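Hi V.,

Quick status before I head out on leave. The structure for the redesign project is tokenized and pasted below; the design run finished overnight.
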């Protein structure tokens, strides 16, 4: 396993996966990917509400794909339960799955998105879960806010 660490978050990811750091509108993101499947963490400095982040992401998929299924629940993120959405949609004759999670603290909102095709899920879902389970906020003295 490889380690990622910056001033806001840290996590572990599989050796051999490509790591890409980016910034959009001043919000940093880091992606680890392999063969089109990916896991991304984005730091939203404006601290939008968790439900707003998840709704906007879901709406973006609704605009792009005619048919999709959305499943909502709670899932662990940084040691606590937070809203979780799983989205299934068809693209290029394949079922694709997207996993969305978010949390908010006093400094930022952390948005996690992972995506893989249905036939990759048996292998990649546990890997995405392991990456997410290893995720930690660096020196966070702020209480998490949903």
């Amino acid at each position: 396993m490889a380690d990622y660490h910056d001033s806001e978050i840290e996590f572990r990811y599989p050796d051999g996966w490509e790591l890409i750091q980016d910034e959009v509108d001043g919000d940093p993101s880091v992606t680890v990917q392999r063969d089109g499947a990916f896991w991304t963490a984005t730091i939203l400095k404006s601290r939008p509400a968790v439900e707003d982040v998840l709704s906007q992401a879901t709406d973006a998929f609704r605009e792009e794909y005619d048919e999709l299924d959305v499943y909502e629940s709670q899932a662990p993120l940084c040691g606590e339960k937070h809203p979780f959405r799983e989205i299934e949609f068809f693209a290029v004759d394949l079922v694709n799955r997207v996993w969305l999670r978010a949390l908010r603290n006093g400094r930022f909102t952390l948005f996690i998105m992972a995506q893989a095709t249905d036939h990759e899920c048996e292998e990649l879902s546990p890997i995405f879960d392991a990456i997410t389970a290893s995720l930690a906020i660096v020196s966070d003295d702020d209480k998490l806010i949903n």
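Above is the designed sequence. The radius of gyration is 15 Å.

G. will cover questions while I'm gone.

Best,
W.
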